[in-house]
Amino acid sequence: ARVREGRSLASALSDFPKVFPEIYQATVAAGEKSGHLDAVLERLADYSEERQSTRQTIIKALIYPAFLVVAALLIVGFLLAYVVPEVVEVFQDMNQQLPTLTRAVIGMSDFVKQWGIAIVAGIVLSIFLFSRAMRAEAFKMRVHRFLLHVPGVSRLIRGINTAQFAQTLSILAASGVEVLKALEIAAQVISNRPMRDAVKAAALQVREGSSINRSLERTGFFPPMLLHLIASGEKSGQLDKMLSKAASHQERELNAALSIFLGLFEPVIIMVMGVVVLLIVLAILMPIFEMNTLVG
């Protein structure tokens, strides 16, 4: 309706910022200005599809390990709270000294039975309070900065944000959006606060005459390959093409990192679960073996 009233499509989209973020407004405006709106809309469709695919990959990488951890904790909790007490009860009435492992498992079982509900309630309350605290920008900044120094987690966070940044900067440059505006918009898709602030600072340096490559390099957050491709694009005058290659490369790097993470995490959890169950079984069997030895 607004377009029929004579307004541009980009101007009409700006009335709905929650539905159409600034990247859509800027690319459509550039497409209308250049007369290639059809090509820009096609790029936007591809960009949205790639973003959705990346988001699904990230969600899968986060949900699956969380499911494994929760399942492992529930299984161990069930064994300690219900199975172990029933099996080892017969040994507690004996006058013989129980093995150290058996006594330790019985102690853990008693602890889980007595405090299990309180522990679960405490975990739920902690998650709730943490989610509320994350609404405060200062607290979120501290958490995000801490995560950037956690081995393994840091690589994933940088990979995810670098891929999203490269994808966004690529489509903005290819659509003809001015470089400074493209950097400012691309910074908004970065979820990690220190990285986002670093890109905003880099945009200010570009405004003052620095190259994109040098400005991003000073942040210390972006991989050498991305910086090299951007530098090549700036020198050759084909920044949009080099950014497209950089975005594709970062997407492959992210998928590889997530695959490695999932490939390592699953067997580790299964191995830990196996060790815990083995210890519980041994704690049950050791008194039986000792009884057989005494009888023999």
Detailed description of the structure:
The chain is mainly α and 296 residues long. The chain has one domain: Receptor-associated Protein (Up-down Bundle), CATH 1.20.81. The protein is built from 11 helices and no strands. The termini are far apart.
Largest sheet: none
| The CATH homologous superfamily | Type II secretion system (T2SS), domain F
Low-confidence stretches: none
Radius of gyration: 28 Å
Write down the secondary-structure element order.
HHHHHHHHHHH
Helical fraction equals over 70%
Structural class: mainly alpha
Gist of the model:
The chain has 296 residues and is mostly helical. Helices cover 82% and strands 0% of the residues.
Characteristic key phrases:
elongated, Receptor-associated Protein, 0% strand, 11 helices, 82% helix, 296 residues
What's the layout of helices and strands?
Blueprint: H1 9-13, H2 22-34, H3 37-92, H4 100-133, H5 137-147, H6 153-174, H7 179-188, H8 193-207, H9 212-219, H10 224-236, H11 239-295
Helix pairs in contact: 2-3, 3-4, 3-6, 3-11, 4-11, 6-7, 6-11, 7-8, 8-9, 9-10, 10-11
